[in-house]
Amino acid sequence: MRSIEWQDGKVRMIDQRLLPATFEWVEFDHYRDVARAIRSMVIRGAPAIGAAGAFAMALAARESRAQDRDLLLADLREAAKVLCDARPTAVNLSWAVERLLRRAEAEASFSAISDALLDEAQALADEDVEINRRLGAHGATLIQEGATILHHCNTGALATVDYGTALGVIRAAHEQGKKIHVLLDETRPRLQGARLSAWELQQLGVPFTLIADNAAGHFMRIGQVDLVLVGADRVAANGDVANKIGTYKLAVVAQANGIPFYPCVPTSTVDLSLATGDEIPIEERDTEEVTDVVYRGMPIAPDGVQVANPAFDVTPHRYVTGIVTEHGIAYSPFEVSLRRMVEASRDG
Ligand code: MRU
Hints:
alpha/beta, Four Helix Bundle (Hemerythrin (Met), subunit A), Rossmann fold, five-stranded parallel sheet, globular
């Protein structure tokens, strides 16, 4: 099952805000509505929002009233800006939108641009699934029989077009018949672990235990975690990793306890234009995500409290054991190994 697809001239996606209670598709035929859907997390996860951006560019070409190539390209550049602004941290969004823009610019014929963009978006979505399967196979070599894996946020089929990155690695190991167990961080404040990863692992039949985020360090210290697998929203050239808030804390505690920590990323998540993670923009989301939680019918915080809600953090590369990609596992020095991985994907 894909999280997003093109159907009858529209893009449709699973409304991830409603899971696990309700499984519902939503359809869009205007790119600005897709941008709003990305912002409000109808669809989320770095590769999935990349695919959403790509299909939205195909919509933008169809929506445009332009009568010649230059005006159509101007409309597409405007659409690209709106889409890239929807969420700033995951580089997959701008990577995908810029790929679609380049495809439009390469098309000499005005009348061919619209179909070319749909072909490109479809190709990008298909490639995402294929890349995740390859990434899963590489990552599964890290998982021993009987291993317990700690996982943060949601990195599965829902966070990608299908299959997943870190959860894809877990899925690959499970499909190989390895007996594994997953400790799932619930992942405050949006609870992607509890709502989405738990839902996915239940469907796949992978044994797991849901834990409060605060319990992760405890399980690592008492020796119940063999490795930590996470996704990422952007990886800088030096191997610094931006991922869901709370990842940094996991990486530090993992290293303190001698537990390997591996982000699992398609090379589209690697941003070689940024030397270090200090340059990665960190999205600050609405404070209501933190406060609008009800505990036994009561709000969890008094009215009017000051709240900060950074959605991502940066883990410095010194805490990263290796980075799993579709071309293999990159190790330190990451400046060299990550560049090699990205070049391998450019060579096809
Ligand atoms: O805010 P979200 O839910 O979009 O954040 C998702 C994550 O942080 C994932 O770990 C990351 O995008 C990788 S998903 C394959």
